[in-house]
Design goal:
- The protein has eleven helices and four strands.
- The chain is an alpha+beta fold.
- The protein has a single domain, classed as Glutaredoxin.
- Strands 2-1-3-4 form a four-stranded mixed β-sheet.
- The longest helix is centred in the C-terminal third of the chain and has 16 residues.
Length: 225
């Protein structure tokens, strides 16, 4: 089959699992360079960091526990550059803010003022700024500084943040997330939601899913349509 398989990749800017799983996504896209097309979507599961630590799933472990857990996950998957101290020093409050910045870059790309690779490279750089550099990526100042480091013009990004278009795009992602039943980050969605891979899925499972979709009667689609 020569048709391209389109899929969406959903992740949260604060998700350590998305950070350590990035290599899998990179290798998938490299190995199927002419057959895959990815749409990067934001699933802001860290809506309130304070709530996660006081009432949510991290309440029992606290900040110290989350620092240790983040470092353990990073070390296990070959990322010694991540200490976990970001949870102690960055001062982040919600992933909705960096999520909106990611959508602003996508809107700038759609408007032709940002290169095609902009959203992908920006998302990676933003996550690196948080996990490695310990920066508060919820800050507009940090968001724009990271954009400039990626070689992206800040004007189009600022405009989308200022006039609300970025927040609207993030809300649209949230609505689709609920419609598809996406549980968290990272998540691969293939075939209009017929195939959803959530979490730290092995490369074998991801590649097998893509290979099956590429080999179908209609590339990237279930036969029962």
């Amino acid at each position: 089959m020569t048709s391209r398989v389109r899929f969406s990749y959903w992740s949260d800017p604060f998700c350590i699992w998305a950070y350590v799983a990035q290599g899998k996504l990179d290798r998938l896209l490299l190995g199927h360079a002419h057959a895959l097309e990815v749409s990067y979507r934001v699933v802001p599961v860290f809506g309130s960091v304070r709530w996660r630590f006081t009432q949510g799933p991290w309440a029992s472990e606290g900040v110290e526990g989350r620092v240790r857990k983040t470092a353990e996950i990073a070390q296990r998957f070959g990322h010694p550059e991540v200490s976990g101290e970001c949870w102690r020093v960055a001062g982040q409050t919600s992933s909705w803010s960096p999520g909106a910045a990611i959508k602003a870059v996508s809107l700038a790309r759609d408007a032709g003022v940002c290169p095609p690779h902009g959203p992908a490279s920006y998302q990676l750089a933003l996550r690196h700024a948080f996990f490695v550099d310990g920066l508060n990526i919820g800050s507009r100042r940090v968001q724009l500084a990271v954009a400039e480091q990626c070689g992206l013009a800040r004007e189009g990004i600022e405009a989308a943040l200022d006039d609300g278009r970025a927040l609207a795009a993030l809300w649209e992602d949230h609505q689709e997330r609920e419609a598809l039943g996406i549980q968290g980050s990272p998540t691969y969605v293939f075939d209009d939601g017929r195939a959803i891979l959530y979490g730290n899925v092995s490369e074998g499972v991801i590649n097998a899913t893509v290979d099956e979709l590429l080999g179908g009667t209609v590339a990237g689609r279930s036969e029962c349509v």
